[in-house]
Amino acid sequence: MAFSGIGLLSIPYALSQGGWLSLAIFVTIAVICYYTGLLLQRCIDASPLVSTYPDIGALAFGQRGRLAVALFMYLELFLVAVDFLILEGDNLEKLFPAASGVQVGALHVGGRQAFALAAALVVLPTTWFSSLSVLAYVAAAGALASVVLVAAVLWVAVFDGVGFHERGRLVHWAGMPSAMSLYSFCFSGHAVFPMIYTGMKDRKKFPMMLFICFTLSTLSYALMGIIGYLMYGDALESQVTLNLPSGKVSSKVAIYTTLVNPLTKYALVVAPIAEAVEDELGLRVAAAKGRPLLLRVAVRTALVAATATVALAVPFFGDVVSLTGALLSCSATMLLPCLCYLRVRAKMIVRPSEKMYRLETAVCTAIIVVGATIVGLGTYSSVKQIVRKL
């Protein structure tokens, strides 16, 4: 949800990996993530001191819980920033296939990697701003961009001659771990749920707001996945835009829409990581006292350089997104909410009825088992693919 641009691009590929029956798993993951979002709400309601996801970890498991939740959050955001740069490189190469790359000293950087590096240089200045309010408004247009992206791909199928001629497979067990990982990534937004909830004027509307968001996201993802799979079947690339016919106006609209999203969202994604590092170094306090901001700029530049280095070294979009979804998104959306809630519930003064207590315990246990399965199988599968391609 928080990274819907990437999710929309990869959902057709995910469906091709798991087959039509994997849509049932997709819907199941959506329902689970909606429920665990409500569990986070209950954890926040248990203490007036809780306002962020790491605060929930601290409430449940103390300082170790805070560190564990923060680690998963920041690693996920880091890999999403890497995904953004890989995405930029792939789609720019699609637009300009004749580009041969650049020569950096004795090192030749290929076209795709050169475009990713150029994207890093473009987003670098946006990370230096201490206030991201302007970018936040621009990034809010992501919902509109998602609609444009789906419409452009649909236009390619209906009016540009591609059509819906592929039947696809009913089920593909070998690709199911990858499919589950990518599906989990689509609904990774739990890190921001506490901040949204605590910032609402009427908190009673949070469950309905969350339900509407998940419903719309699930429908848009499913529509894009079905359209893409019927268009290209098992020949789908990790991003559906890479399959679109070159030279068509609708294809260019889809690709340009894809390119703009990461450029506007990159600074917002890396900001929490940068702020955490700056807090540890005492740089934000120094900035508040009017001291030079050079070190803050250096921290953020180093962070961009780190994401660019990983993007150049591991330029495999589908596998990196799959790894992010399996190891980090699934942990943050399934495992941690359930574990934290079960621990926090034991400390509540007002506890559920005995029947509800047992039902919640059974549901949370089942979700933990499902989450652990996706984490294990998905992480192994994605790491294996990355190592094989290196």
UniProtKB/TrEMBL annotation:
Q: Where is the Amino acid transporter transmembrane domain?
A: 2-380
As for membrane topology, the entry says: Multi-pass membrane protein
One cellular component term from this protein's GO annotations in UniProt: vacuolar membrane
Where does the source fall among the domains of life?
Answer: Eukaryota
Q: Answer yes or no on keyword Transport.
A: yes
Q: Which residues cross the membrane?
A: 20-40, 67-87, 134-158, 178-197, 209-233, 293-314, 320-342, 362-383
Record-linked InterPro entries? AA_transpt_TM
Does the record's keyword annotation contain Transmembrane helix? yes
**Single GO MF descriptor:** L-amino acid transmembrane transporter activity
Keyword annotations of the record: Amino-acid transport, Membrane, Transmembrane, Transmembrane helix, Transport
The record's subcellular location field reads: Membrane
What stretch or stretches form a coiled coil here? none
Q: What is this protein called?
A: Amino acid transporter transmembrane domain-containing protein
